Amino acid sequence: MTSPAPSSSAVPPPTDRYAAPAPPADVVRMRDLAVQVGGAGAGGRQLLADVDLTVRRGERVGLIGESGSGKSLTALAVLGLLAEGLTATGSILVTGTGTDTGTGTDTGAGAGAGAGSGAGSGAGSGAEGGIPRSTEVIGARESDLARMRGRDVTMVFQEPMTALNPTMRVGRQVAEVMTLHHTVPDRASAMRRAVELLDKVGLPDPAEAARAYPHQLSGGQRQRVVIAIALANDPALLICDEPTTALDVTVQAMVLDLVVKGVETRDAGLLFITHDLAVVASVCERVLVMYGGRVVEAGTVQEVFTRPRHRYTRGLIGASDLELTRDDGRLYTIQGSVPAAGRFPAGCVFRNRCIHATTDCETLPQWQGPGPEAGFACWHPVVHRD
Ligand SMILES: Nc1ncnc2c1ncn2[C@@H]1O[C@H](COP(=O)(O)OP(=O)(O)OP(=O)(O)O)[C@@H](O)[C@H]1O
Ligand code: SF4
Ligand SMILES: [Mg+2]
């Protein structure tokens, strides 16, 4: 991230355009996130704008949208992992599991107390049962981000090989994330715990698997190892970016089950990115729809999938459901294609593809809804008469 790095005490309080105060159980509260490439001047391009997102403990939230909508950028921004040359503004407050050291836990209710100090915003360290550590990601120091990643927030990517070190035995890789964050007392306990975790994610002979190198495992087994690493420190938030897309359909369901059980036992939040709306329907309770680097609709999965309001959401759901036909008997598709990054029209980002667009749509539609968790931004929304 290329944003300036103020001292941890100088981080301003996050802005919030909604009246309701943030409930303490928010694990991530993103407000007004904007990501720019090429600087703020005329040559710059806006990749994300006005992105608001909240995930609470125990909540499973989906993030959907066509390729190039900004889903991965949003996820990477939470981890402070945006590529060189991108600038982020706004606020991303991550509230983690507590402080480092102590012992790893099976159930993930937090990982003890001890030496770690509050990172990022310096919003607190505290002993067990004290104030959880909060990190304001935008503008945080790299050392604070390093403390947050792998501990408070972890991520599972589409391709497990990119997350694993090909030259290190997988057991050591699982153990290392715990020793690094001091969530176990020593290396021996880390190794024991690593084998336990490999067992929990369903590797057939976990002790044997711990001694394997990544290339000696199948794609599905490697993704299980990545999930074991992601859950090792009982994170407050797990982010999954298309975690099953590269896997055979036969192992997809098992991996999804692991993710859901993993966050459930830990009462962690889940931010789940996928193209597959059926997966969102089975995994998530809430969903956000992104297009053109903006959240265009949000709500419960039930509400958004059965009564979409935004014209883009309507098209996305229609296009994914081969059973659904228009009045003229044709299948739904979204006409046109997603513009290149930063080349979306002014006003409503969807207006060059929307058959309902009017001159109103040349002005940016305001969010209509009680907060970032439910609402839409469309001048001529779908009206449901039932
Ligand atoms: N480092 C970068 N520099 C310039 N443009 C970028 C950079 N990273 C991403 N983009 C652009 O930002 C847009 C959003 O990218 P992002 O990866 O978030 O899309 P996505 O919704 O995750 O798509 P997919 O479903 O294909 O993974 C894309 O048009 C992408 O090309
Ligand atoms: S604001 Fe206008 S262009 Fe955008 S989705 Fe709604 S009707 Fe279509
Ligand atoms: Mg992506």
Folded structure, characterized:
- With 386 residues, the protein is an alpha/beta fold.
- 27% of the residues lie in helices and 20% in strands.
- The protein contains eleven helices and twelve strands.
- The protein has an eight-stranded mixed β-sheet, sandwiched between helices.
- α4 crosses α5 (187-200), α5 packs across α7 (219-231) and α7 packs parallel to α8 (249-266).
- The longest helix is centred in the C-terminal third of the chain and has 18 residues, at 249-266.
- Mean pLDDT is 85; it is low at 1-14 and 100-128.
- The structure holds adenosine-5'-triphosphate, iron/sulfur cluster and magnesium ion.
Mean pLDDT: 85
Q: Name the strands of the widest sheet in spatial order.
A: 6-7-8-3-9-10-12-11
Number of H- or I-type helical stretches: 11
Globally, the shape reads: globular
Oligomer: single chain
Q: Give the helix proportion (percent range).
A: 25-40%
Which regions are unreliable across 5 or more consecutive residues at pLDDT < 50? 1-14, 100-128
Terminal CA distance = 47 Å
In this structure, how is the largest beta sheet organized?
8 strands, mixed
List the ligand species: adenosine-5'-triphosphate, iron/sulfur cluster, magnesium ion
Instruction: Return Rg in Å.
Output: 21 Å
Percentage beta strand:
15-25%
Helix vs. strand class: alpha/beta
Order of helices and strands: EEEHEEHEHHHHHEHEHEEHHEE
How many strands appear in the DSSP assignment?
A: 12
In terms of topology, how is this protein built?
Blueprint: E1 26-37, E2 45-56, E3 60-64, H1 71-78, E4 86-95, E5 134-136, H2 142-148, E6 153-156, H3 160-163, H4 170-180, H5 187-200, H6 206-210, H7 219-231, E7 237-241, H8 249-266, E8 269-273, H9 277-283, E9 286-291, E10 294-300, H10 301-306, H11 311-320, E11 368-371, E12 374-376
Parallel strand pairs: 3-8, 3-9, 6-7, 7-8
Antiparallel strand pairs: 1-2, 1-4, 4-5, 9-10, 10-12, 11-12
Helix pairs in contact: 4-5, 4-7, 5-7, 7-8
Bound molecules: adenosine-5'-triphosphate (ATP), iron/sulfur cluster (SF4) and magnesium ion (MG).
Adenosine-5'-triphosphate binds at residues 37, 47, 65, 67-73, 83, 86, 341.
